[in-house]
Write a structure and sequence with these properties.
By secondary structure, the protein is an alpha+beta fold. It contains four helices and 20 strands. Strands 1, 2, 4, 12, 13, 15, 18 and 19 form an eight-stranded mixed sheet that branches. Strands 9, 11, 14, 16 and 17 form a five-stranded antiparallel sheet that branches.
């Protein structure tokens, strides 16, 4: 490694905003990440808890709001004063041992050790506050917004509000929990179950209890900050997969029933009726199939420490079912 490269890495680790390496996840998808190998690597202390098990083909929801995205970076308490001092002085020592010029770290020494504005890293306040640093959302490291947290590490006394834009709070945690929400696949029931028929309705439904609310909790240990999001299914949108089809209803939106089901199961004798949720194909799929896309919309609310809470943008998750359509005008079901 060249002196220039080492200098960049060490000064970045000591005083520059740090890139988040990842989250701790507690639950069925537990993982521990190590941090970005680029040199600027301080790992966020945020913990994500996803209770329950994850079904096969589950996936993350997609926000329906074009003007909203999860936080790409934020500031969070990271260092006790003595630890911050030990860390930085170790980096300075290594820097100097490989021939680094004093002016290369002069500004950092002045800022954190020589009273401009901090004296001796605030070690006399070791149990009375924390050094806050910038971290990046590990899911959004390439997002331009992840580069907007440019403030150098700063000290916040215990109990004080940092009064800094993008300082972590319960709303930040709610956004991170929203981003990590994983919902089960939207596997709809169809009738007929096999081949649909041109000009005859295909019934589509989701049984009661198929989908239950999904909750995710994000917290920052040692601070008392937490936020829990809860996603509830509210509607199903059908896209037949071809322009040669009609959605039933015409909007393609099937609302959830009072009992939690969507649509109505097909039963013998309903062949000539129009289903409350379904499609009608107008042309055969030939030797192929049409991809019937079923998109479930999840309404998301959150609550957090300190009595905070509110609503977040709804999310969607889609599953495609391949439907063969045959050219028969009537069929016994």
């Amino acid at each position: 490694m060249t002196v220039t490269a080492l200098t960049t890495a060490l000064v970045g680790l000591g005083t520059l905003p740090a890139a988040a390496g990842g989250f701790d996840t507690i639950g069925p998808q537990e993982r521990k990440t190590s941090g970005d190998a680029s040199g600027q690597a301080l790992e966020s202390r945020v913990t994500i808890k996803v209770p329950g098990s994850t079904a096969k083909d589950s996936g993350p929801i997609t926000s329906t709001a074009v003007d909203w995205e999860p936080p790409a970076c934020w500031y969070e308490p990271y260092w006790k004063a003595k630890d911050f001092k030990k860390f930085n002085e170790a980096q300075w020592s290594i820097y100097e041992s490989v021939g680094g010029a004093p002016e290369g770290i002069a500004d950092d020494k002045a800022r954190y050790k020589q009273g401009h504005p901090y004296k001796d890293f605030n070690v006399d306040k070791n149990d009375g506050g924390m050094w806050w640093v910038a971290v990046r959302n590990p899911e959004m490291t390439d997002d331009p917004a992840a580069k907007t947290c440019t403030r150098e590490p700063f000290w916040v006394d215990t109990g004080d509000n940092p009064d800094v834009p993008q300082a972590i709070d319960t709303e930040t945690l709610a956004g991170l929990a929203h981003q990590r929400t994983v919902v089960p696949p939207t596997k709809v029931s169809l009738a007929p179950n096999g081949k649909s028929t041109v000009n005859a309705p295909t019934w589509v439904w989701l049984d009661k209890g198929t989908f239950k609310p999904v909750s995710v909790t994000a917290s920052l240990p040692g601070t008392g900050l937490w936020a829990t999001t809860t996603a509830k299914p509210v509607s199903l949108h059908l896209d037949p997969g071809t322009v040669d089809a009609e959605s039933l209803p015409a909007s393609g939106e099937c609302v959830i029933n009072d009992d939690g089901s969507i649509g109505e199961p097909y039963a013998r004798g309903k062949a000539e009726l129009t289903p409350p949720c379904g499609v009608r194909y107008l042309r055969s799929s030939g030797d192929g199939t049409y991809g019937l896309k079923a998109t479930l919309t999840w309404e998301i609310a959150w609550e957090g420490s300190g009595g905070t809470g509110g609503d977040l943008p709804s999310g969607t998750f889609a599953t495609t079912t391949e439907v063969p359509v045959q050219e028969i005008q009537s069929v016994n079901r």
